[in-house]
Each structure stands twice: as structure tokens, then as C-alpha cells.
Amino acid sequence: MVNPARPFELLVCLIALALGLAAWFISDTFPRTAEGYLGPALFPKLLAVGLAAASLGLIYRNLRLPGLAASFGLLAWGNLLRIGGVLLALLLTPWALDKLGLLGSAGLLVLLSCLLLGARWLEALLTALFMVAFVYVVFVQLLKVPL
Amino acid sequence: MSFFSLESFIAMILGALYGVLFGSLPGLTATLAISLFIPIAIFLDPAVAFSAIIGITATAIFAGDIGATAMRIPGTPASAAYTEEIHQIGKERSPAFALGISALSSALGSLVGIAILIGGSLGLAQVAKQFSSFEYFWLVLLGIVSGVFASPSMAKGLIAFGVGMLIATIGYDPALGTPRFNFGNPNLLGGISFIVALIAFFGVAEVLNNIYSYRKGPPPAPNPNQNRSVAQEFFGAAGRLVWRERRLLLRSSLLGTFIGFLPGAGSDLAAWISSNFTRLRRGSKEQVTLSGASSNNAAVAGTWIPALSLGIPGDTLTAIVLGMFLTMGITPGPDLFAKNLGFVVQLYMAFILASLLMMPLVGYLGAALISTLLRIPLRLLLGAVMGLCLVGTYAINRNPFDLYLLVVLGLLGLLMQRGGFPVGQLILGMVLGPLLEQYLMMSLIKTQWDLTAFFSRPVAVGLAVCNLLLIVGMLWLRRQRARPSNP
Amino acid sequence: MKRVFGTIAVVAVLALTLVALGQRYPVRPITLIVPWSPGGSTDLTARSLAPVLGNILGQPVQVVNRTGGGGAIGHAAIAQGDPNGYTIGIITLEVVLPAWVNQTKINADAFTPIALLVLNPVAIVVRKDAPWRNAQEFIADIKANPGKYKASGTARAGSYDYARLGFLKKLGLRDAALPWVPAQGAAAALQELISGGINVAFVSIGEASALVKAGEARYLAFMTDRRFPAFPDVPTLKELGVDWTFASFLMAAAPKHTLPSVARQLDQAFAKAVQDPEFVRFMNNANLVINHLNFDQTKAFLAERNRAMAELADELK
């Protein structure tokens, strides 16, 4: 069964499994209650069991169905790179906040996102400028949100 | 004082417009709207200040749907319950139709809630007094069970819930107050901000999702319904739908008021349980939106029942307003109606006016605005949304660390959406996980780990049986539905 | 010789500049950091005080919420601000709570306390149909039946848990005599009280006042040193022979090495600001009790609270 969702399904299951395992082992270090019962560790351990069971079941079902390789062939690698670009830009904003302030960083992020979405330079620039003006007028001037 | 002067009316309209901006922009909440308004309110006549506050609260919660329709970013956790659906309706038919359903059923749901507030608050307050940690535990579990079964794939629903609840365990634990999973980082001591998660899982993930499906070439043909008149879609088509679904609307509103009046459970849980029940019954997108929106707003009125009759405010917003009542010499309790009848009647009238006029009014304005917005090419609109996500996230805590969370959770949201996982249920997991753990630990510590105590009170037993019936019934139903396709 | 003279000259110029700066403080807007979310009591106090303070100092005072980390982020932002008087904030009870201090590594020494603004004293609250008519009966009962009754109010090792621990300690009782059930805040604890899940709640007077006025609950005693004006019939623990007071507080503070002259100037400004009629009216409306102490008194108050809480924590070990 060729389905573009399958690679993502596998990946999310692996992440869920990893999160569950991590939660199980890290919660071993949590203190117990005065009576010696599991306190803070109880709930994460319950969740870990549920996550592991559900993700292992889904992984098993996913791998058993035919057409896995063809499903991976449907991945749009070029667009995954674009997504990487936007996320990288977002990762750098805390650093840009110091240099450019919030409005400048937001403008830059808008510009970059528009370009990665396939916009032309001029219209991307105009959108970024409009957003900066919008945020300034609505958030700062009108609503007096402290930014 | 009187709520029915020209000044009060203008204050209410201005409050409603102010509230709608806060509700619809990501990162700005109703509570923030009120607290920024308070330095101004102290210089106003109390009647005018109250009218404005009623206007703000009436619209700030409802306006969460505007962000959900336009950008798939719900403004409140409650509107996350039906964000997928309302956004889809907006895309496939028209935003005016989507917001019309939401605004009209919000207004009607709120009216039902107020009617119950007027008629039965003293009786219902007695029910609220029955709810200790055991009853809450079963009620929250009911919310989770209905959510898992409402997902198309149970395993995927379970994973979404599990991840959401695990994310919510970050920070101080409810039993001993030890920090968990914060890896020594003080930014994570108090857990991950709920609004940041909403912006990441819906806003950022939506932009990334569109980038992923981006193709060079001519843009897709515009929606043929785009040119329909906003008024006709908003009042006409949506109005007919709401009238046709009046029974569902009444049922959801009653459920919403009931859940809303339980202190602390509030409108989030109400919207989720109602819309998940509609999903369980395989309701259409419109029905899910309608039941979610009506019970969300009915629950807002419902939170006033314990506040006015017992003196327990359900949330921060109610607490602020209740505090203002107290200092005006208006004391909650059984005597409220005897002593301050005039005031209470005026208060209710103001609430009714706000729901009847303000919600459709600002909803209509929102729909008109979105219809214009959507004429902007997607590539530019999504870029602008990205900027709004950044500003909204920063507006909550002014903490650059939240931006890293935005990246991680946004990416996770994209993967889950692409893999067919119900992201909305993850948000519900984040809301309900801490409540479930809190009531579980509270009950266990209170009774020294005596599990039979969970079945020791009548209401608790009733709710436990509801859970059991739901699980057994849904498993049976799933088997029945699976059989014909799998002979 | 020349070098010595040069050094003296440099030091003199520096000192003069500092004095001049001190005298001309403030010359630009002041940031007032609030470590808790908008809408809470800290935020409301700061927002209503800021315009008044701005008028007195002649420079705008901008309120900034730095939330997250259970208050850790905002308190750290105040402590790590430049000690030039332009970054100040409102610190809360947490800075003297041992559990919080251990987890956040921020303690009372990281600040220059300027003025105590608000005290929210803790009350002992019971259901209207509780078996005790007054606090004496309640105390006698827990002494006779240790471990029989349950209390709540906040998370374990949270603020009101220390209120209970101090109360028990002064009675000569242990932690287990009145076990603590953790709750996420006062509203949840009060709901649990009303529904019969616990027997007694330790919450601030203001948090329970609506419930008490509605006739659903009763105050047995307040942890104050004198009677509380709004409820003159409720006795204080001190009157009952239990020498224990406890209140959550809001305190204006600056980073640690702030110049004493600047701190004094701020102290005077706060002293004036808390008497402003609009501010007083607002605080009354919001059920917050202004309890102003000046610079020296505030310092002593903070040191005393710090000692009292540390002693309690030692006993818990």
C-alpha cells in the first residue's frame, strides 16, 4: 500500500517510543513519597507504557504492509529543505532579537518565509514591511501590549 | 448605577472590539485583555467599566474561532477542540459560513447558559458541592476516553494523547513539587506555556505543512465560493444550518453549562467533550463546530454559577470580576438574589445583550475581514502568519527560549499532521493530562493509596460507570463497523 | 607620583560622576518587572502602581511581565538586571521558600529590598458545618487525634504548606499530625474543602472571602499579629497563644548592588505612591491589602522571614 503518510507515521512512532523510554528511565530518579510509593514518577511511567504499546503496534502494522519503499519515494525532499530553512531562521531569531529588536526580527522572518514559499522579492519585501507596520500599530500602539 | 445608558452601551461595543482583537491574534488572551484594561478601568464609572468588561469577555473567548478559521491558529484552548473542522469549512466553502456557524451557535449557547444561570444556579450549586477529587478524576478520564475513541485510528489517538500528556508533565509535579524533565533548565521549571504550544502545533505547523506541499507552477484555482456575499453566507446559510441542528445545539449547550459550572474544569473541557461526542457519532464538520462552539460559550456562562452562588471563581477572568463585585458590596451566595436583585437582573440583561448583539456583530466583521484577507496569495499570507507566530509567542512571556520550543513543537506538529495523527487531541492531552494527574495524586495521597476510595462516593461511581459504558460501547461499535468491510 | 596623582584624579572624576548620576536619577524610563502572569495580584498591583510611581519620579515606569518557570524567570531577570535603578521589580514570598530557592538557585540575597507593598495573610478555613466552633476546639482536636484530619491549599512545599508547618511547629506537633494534600492552587483546595475531600484549608484571607461571605465556609483564625479590619471578629493566632504569622507578600526590589542613594530615592517614591488615593481605591477594589514598610523595615522583614522559613525546612529533614 503506497501512502505518502507512511514515512511520517513511522517517524512519529519512533519519536513517541523514544519519548516513552526516556520518560521511563528518567523518572527512576524522581523522589518517592513519604510512604514509599511512586510519587512524581507514577504518571510518566503510566504514559510511557501506553506510548510504547501504541507506537510498537503501529510500527509493526506499518512495516508489515507492502509498498514501504515506494512510500518513501514520495517524500518531497526539496520542500523538506525549505522547511529546514524556515526552522533555521526561527532558531536564529533569539540571537537576532538582541541585534534587531522584535520588529526587525519579525520582518526578516516574514521576508524569508515568503521567499521560501516561492514569493517574488518585491512582494515578499512589501509583505514584511506591512507586517512590521501592522504589529507596531496594533500590538504596540493600539493594544499597548508590552513587547 | 445602570448598565443601560448610552455610555455603557458604547463602552460595551468598544470593549467587544478590543476583546475581539485580543481573542483573534495568536498569543493574546482574554486575561491579558482584562489586565491591560484595568489601569484604565479604575478611572471609569463602575457601570461603564463593567459594561466594557462584559463586552471584552463576551467576545474575547468567541474570537478564538476567528484565528482558527483564518490561520488555523485557535485563540483559546477551547477553540482548539474544533479548529480542524472550522478551518476546513472556511477553506472548502467560505470563512463567512464557518464563522457564521460559530458566531450564531456561540450566541445561542451563551443564551442557554445564561438561562440556566438565572433559573437553576442555586440548585446546580448543590451539585457542584458534590465534586471532590474522585469525581473530577472520572470526569477528566471521560474527556480523555471520548477523545481517544473520537480519533479515526485509536492507536494514533493514543499516541497523540500520550505525547501531549507527557509534554505537560514537564515542570513541577503536583504531588511533591519536584521539577521533572527540565534538564536543569529554569525555563522549563513551570512547564511549557499552553499558548506557545497552540501557536506551534497549529500556526507554525500549518505554515510548514504548506511549504511541504508547495509546487512550482500556476497557483491553484481560487475557491468558487469566494465571491458569495458575506452577509448571505454568515446569516443566511449558517443561520439555516443552525436552525436545522437546533436539537444538537441545545444538547451541546446543556452539556457545556453543566461541565462549565464545575469550578476549574471550565470551558476547555466542555468544548472538547461536546465536539468529541459529536465526532463519536460521526457528525459532519459543521456539526462538530456547532456543538463545540455552543458548549464553549454556554460553559462561560456556566462558570458564573459557582462564582455567584458559592463564591468559587472557576478561572482567572471570573476571579478578577468577582473581586470587583465583592468590593461593591455585592456578596455571592443564596442571599445574592434577595439582597441585590436589581443589580443581578441588570447584570444578566447586560450579558444577554452582549451575547445577542456583540457576538454576531464582531463575528460578521471578522468574516468580512477574513474574506478580504484570503484574497492575498497564500505564499504571502503564510509568510505573514509566520511573523505573527513569532510576535505572539514573544508577547506571552518575553522569553526568547519560547522560540526554541516553537521550532521543536512546530516540527513535531508537522510530522504528526503528515502522518495522520490528530494534533488537536495532543492539545487536549496537554490540557487534561495535568488535571488527571493532579486529581489522581490528590485522591491517592488523601486516602493513603486506597484504590477503593475511587468508588466510595455516589457521583464518583456514576461517572466511573459512564467511563466503562463508553469504552465497552465504543469497542463494540468499532467491531460492528469493521465487520462488513472485513468478512 | 604622577601616576598616583592620575589615579586619584580618575577616581575623583568617577566618584563625582556617580554622585551626579545618583542625584540626577532617573533620567530615562524605568522597567518594573513582574514575575507572574497578567491578571494575578502581583500584576494588578504593579499595573496600578506604575502610573503613580511614574508621576512621582518624573519618568515613565513600564510594567513588563517576565513569566514562566514558576516565577523563576522573572525573579532571575530582576536579580540579574543592571544595578543602576532602571531595572526594578516586584518579588514575592517564593524568594524565602526553601524548596523554591533550592530549585531555582535564586534567594533573597540576590536583591536589594526596597519597600514591602502588600501582605496577604493566611487564614485557617473550615466548612460551615465543621465540628469545631472555634480555633481552640480545632487545635485541641488535632492534638488529641494527630493524623485524623487533612489539610490543603497549594502544592507540597508550596507557600501555604509552610504556613501549616509553622503553625504545627508552634503547637509542638509534627508534619504528620495534620497531613497535607497537594492542590494546584487555592481555588482547587477550596473546592475540595466544600466537597468534603479535606477538613481544613490554609489559603489567603482574600482567596476565601467570597466563600465565607456566601456562608459556605468559616474562618477559624488568621495568621496575623493584629486583627484584620475587614473581619474584626476573627481572632489572630497570637491571641490564641500560638506565636505564628504567615502571609504571602509583594515587595518592590532592585538588583543586589544597586546604589544606596538610588534605593533611598526609590524608597521615598514608593512611600508616596502607596498613599495615592486612586491606587488605594483600586487596591481596595481588588481585595489587596496595602502594607507598606520603608527601606530599613523591609530589609529586616525579609531577613526575619528568610530565617523563619529556613528553620522550618531544617526541621522537615
Structure notes:
The complex is a heterotrimer of chains A (147), B (487) and C (317). Chain A is mostly helical and 147 residues long. Chain A contains five helices and no strands. Chain A has two domains: 5-73; 77-142, no CATH class. Helices cover 77% and strands 0% of the residues of chain A. Chain A is flat and about 55 Å long. The termini of chain A are far apart. The model of chain A has no long low-confidence stretch (mean pLDDT 90). In chain C, strands 1, 2, 3, 4, 5, 6, 7, 8, 9 and 10 form a ten-stranded mixed beta sheet that branches. Chains in contact: A-B, B-C. Chains A and B meet through helix 1, helix 2, helix 4 and helix 5 of A and helix 1, helix 8, helix 9, helix 18 and helix 19 of B. Chain B: The chain crosses the membrane at residues 12-42, 48-68, 96-119, 131-150, 157-176, 188-208, 304-326, 347-370, 376-396, 403-435, 455-477. Chain B: Keywords: Membrane, Transmembrane, Transmembrane helix. Chain B: It comes from Meiothermus taiwanensis WR-220.
Question: How would you summarize this macromolecular structure in one to three sentences?
Answer:
Chain A has 147 residues and is an all-alpha fold.
